[in-house]
Write a structure and sequence with these properties.
31% of the residues lie in helices and 7% in strands. By secondary structure, the protein is mostly helical. Helix 4 crosses helix 5. The protein is globular and about 60 Å long.
Length: 433
């Protein structure tokens, strides 16, 4: 009735100034957004790439570029692109349902809003299910990233060893250890084991973006291959060759990839059989889909999610936890599990590889790492795990500590010699991580 009569419920005729004012406000917003986003790119303050990324690669805070490169746009199309309305529409449901910044499975606290949009949009890519018609396989472990990284939240580890990787050998060919995939697309046979197999847990991805920012100088300062300080620890940086370049490597349980983006791109190939151009060297497959099967932009979306996953928050820090941390330091567990590495606090890793002795020798060689050499596992998020070590054979932290030998023999022996009260304090500290 209001529209028909032209009168409001008070009996007064609506003022013509209200719709005119609303129109002006909307127009000003559009023009203002167009003016801001049409500004020359040179006026924006560029973000430097993270220390472990090659120069020129997109930083996590930037808006992800679509491929192929688009011509520079201005006006309302630029405003639309800059406001990320398309990505926000895709990301709305996961944004509404997903953990908030700082929560487990959520983004790091304090990210710019464009990076938050990239994060939640990247979560969609992380959860995307691939089919054989899109390049899945021909042999594979699962159909999406989240299928293996879902516990205790999206971006975590596998729920059980069924989500892990089985690797064949020996004899070794000198190349990468290839996964013994659990599944195959129709018309293809699953791979069969050849010789010894070694099981690997699916590791959580929380906080990996922060570890990608650690400068190589921080890791290099901790190397001690000759054990010059006599503590029994001889950590070294792993290295990897790819694209004709040999670089220090830090990602993967054997430190087999040099940066996070390459690590993620390699996992897409190794776990799903989805080829792409970002992996350290090209790899095709034997299915009917042309390689590369995933565009670069898809890998960048996954990278934006994982790179900005928040590290796990600490549990309550009680007096016992503080006392247990002092025991942890006294046993020289911090010789490998460093409380601070470069700008990153609380990861408790040195990102170096160490010989852990015969009890943890899987026989799995990868890159320069021998079967007994493993990269120091970050300890943040330890309280969210039910089993421990690379193959989850240890049902408790105490059992895992007992199996530390090789370079960790001295701290392990000191743990066994602890008084019961000190052991309880140490386990309280580890249970808070």
């Amino acid at each position: 009735m209001r529209a028909i009569s032209g009168r409001s419920s008070t009996g007064r005729r609506p003022s013509a100034r209200a719709p005119a004012l609303a129109t002006l406000v909307i127009a000003a917003l559009i023009i203002g957004a167009s003016w801001v986003t049409a500004a020359p790119a040179a006026q924006a303050s560029p973000q430097a790439p993270t220390p472990s990324e090659p120069a020129g690669s997109p930083s996590p805070g930037r808006r992800l570029a679509k491929e192929p490169p688009q011509a520079t746009v201005a006006g309302f199309p630029a405003a639309w692109s800059d406001l990320r309305i398309d990505a926000m529409a895709r990301a709305w449901q996961p944004l509404w349902m997903a953990p908030r910044p700082g929560e487990l499975g959520g983004p790091t606290v304090g990210l710019p809003w464009r990076t938050l949009v990239d994060f939640y949009d990247g979560r969609l890519a992380f959860e995307r299910v691939f089919t054989a018609a899109e390049g899945l396989g021909p042999t594979y472990n699962d159909v999406s990233c989240v299928a293996c990284h879902s516990h205790p939240a999206v971006g975590g580890g596998g729920r059980d060893m069924g989500q892990g990787i089985t690797v064949h050998g020996p004899p070794w060919t000198g190349g990468d250890a290839m996964g013994l995939h659990k599944r195959a697309i129709p018309g293809h046979a699953k791979k069969q084991a050849a010789g010894k197999t070694a099981r690997l847990r699916t590791p959580p991805l929380f906080g990996l973006g922060l570890l990608d920012t650690v400068p190589e100088s921080a890791r290099q300062a901790l190397e001690d291959p000759q054990d010059t300080n006599g503590d029994g620890i001889r950590g070294v940086r792993a290295s990897r060759s790819g694209d004709g370049v040999d670089k220090p490597a830090r990602f993967g349980q054997k430190s087999n990839d040099w940066d996070l983006r390459t690590f993620l791109a390699g996992a897409m190939v190794d776990e799903m059989g989805v080829t792409n151009t970002i992996r350290r060297e090209p790899r095709g497959d034997a299915d009917a889909i042309a390689d590369p099967e995933a565009p670069r932009h898809f890998v960048l979306r996954v990278d934006a999610f994982v790179r900005n996953l928040a590290p796990p928050a600490r549990g309550p820090i009680t007096a016992d936890v503080r006392a247990g941390e002092a025991v942890f330091a006294r046993l020289n567990c911090v010789g490998c599990h460093r409380p601070q590495l470069g700008p990153v606090r609380g990861a408790y890793t040195d990102l170096l590889i160490h010989d852990m002795g015969p009890a943890l020798d899987s026989g799995l060689k990868d890159g320069v790492a021998t079967g007994a050499q493993w990269r120091t596992a970050p300890l943040w998020g330890l309280r969210h795990r039910a089993r421990y070590l690379h193959d989850e054979r240890a049902p408790s932290v105490a059992v895992a500590l007992a199996m530390h030998q090789g370079e960790a023999a001295k701290p392990a022996a000191a743990f066994h010699a602890l008084a019961q009260a000190d052991r309880r304090l140490l386990l309280a500290f580890l249970g808070s991580l």
